[in-house]
Amino acid sequence: MALTALTVILSVLCGFIGALFWALHRVNCFLYERKLGEKKLWLPPGDLGWPFIGNMWAFLRAFKSTNPDSFMSSFVSRFGQDGIYKAFMFGSPSVIVTTPDSCRKVLTDDEKFKPGWPISTVELIGRKSFIGISFEEHKRLRKLTSALVNGHEALSIYMRYIEEKVVSALERWSTLGEIEFLTELRKLTFRIIVHIFMGSQGEPDMEELEREYTSLNYGVRAMAINLPGFAYHRALKARKKLVAIFQRIMDGRREDKERNVARERKDMMDALMEVEDENGRKLTDEEIIDVLLMYLNAGHESSGHTIMWATILLQQHPEILQKAKEEQEEILKKRASSKKGLTLKDYRQMEYLSKVVDETLRVVTFSLVVFREAKSDANINGYIIPKGWKVLVWFRSVHFDPEIYPNPRAFDPSRWDDHTAKAGTFLPFGAGSRLCPGNDLAKLEISIFLHHFLLNYRLERVNPRCNVRHLPHPRPSDNCLARVRKL
């Protein structure tokens, strides 16, 4: 009798727990889908997850494992291969798009979609940076800054400085024994980008900038918990310090100008302080600081990580390394003996190395996703994306699609032979009007480093089989502990 009563109690308890779990799992649907009326019938398939956290635990669990793509694989296995799914990500009801066509539509349709980065990210990078402003403001700001970053004259000037720093760094690393290769690369690319944008800075300022940028970057992909001890809290404090540093430098330059103190070389900060649009309007201090914050963060993180992975992948594939090295040797042979240093003409002859860089960008997919927001109800592949919902353009799924890239996990620069990527199939720098404005500078920097590395150095990793971490960006857990050997 007692056993029967216990069985009944356990059955009721299990039923109650099951009903509670079902109800909790429906909270987000009730909050965000009910108000859509009949339009909810045309939402993509998917799962809005648990209240408040949505699908973020699943996302973080996957990207902290050895198989980050298990997150999207679970959507595909549960909801089919349409390549478009509803979810609740980064605090908002969202639609994830994973096919080239849907990615292209979202990235290029400025009438239907605007930047939709999480508020936490915008707070860190800046409301007046490219990720936080309207299409009209972006168009104006990009026009004012693009020539300063990617123009032919600008790249020619930057090239000499980049090469000088790369040669010096490689020589120094070869004398140090074991180093964290990624950490040293991030310092190198950071100092290069700071010089380009802000000129020469004193060592104390440079060290402080490096330290605060590291904290800022780790907070960009962290959960927005503004409490002591959390990455986002540290990142907000870092941003405040960076803003203060930039403002101090700008104020100093204005004082120098008033005293007619001449500067040896004008840099990006000078140009941004002086530039005017067709109506004579200058940029505000807030706009200048947010643009610099954005460029400096993106300009050293992506380049440093890509250089590291290109170096590792070349070492893992000796036949590819040898072919790339032979191309660089041939470029040196053709160059007049009176010329010293690389030129843009030399750079444009690096056809195979360019394929190596593109293949690295595809395999690594430094930025796994970009964020947009529907300005009005949008139709993608027969599904409705409601106004105000976020759209996550999932680059990883595109770059690892076997229909586009056979054997996609393989590092194979030859796949780019006589191959022009169709729209939406190769997205390392995004697409559309908001294509990364520093893409040409980044590829130039990566190629200059690889040119000198291939000719004169090799990398010996201490822990070649160590785990890879995927947040905030893919990197070996030991930051690529290695020795740089001079040949």
Distinct helical segment count: 18
Largest sheet: 5 strands, mixed
Strand order of the largest sheet: 1-2-8-5-3
Q: Which percent band covers the strand fraction?
A: 5-15%
What structural keywords apply?
single chain, 487 residues, alpha+beta, Cytochrome p450, five-stranded mixed β-sheet, three-stranded antiparallel β-sheet
Tell me the layout of helices and strands.
Layout: H1 2-25, H2 27-32, H3 56-63, H4 70-79, E1 84-89, E2 92-97, H5 100-108, E3 113-115, H6 119-125, H7 135-150, H8 152-173, E4 178-180, H9 181-198, H10 203-220, H11 231-258, H12 268-274, H13 285-316, H14 318-334, H15 344-348, H16 351-364, E5 369-374, E6 378-380, E7 383-385, E8 390-394, H17 395-399, H18 439-456, E9 457-461, E10 468-469, E11 475-476, E12 481-486
Parallel strand pairs: 2-8
Antiparallel strand pairs: 1-2, 3-5, 4-12, 5-8, 6-7, 9-12, 10-11
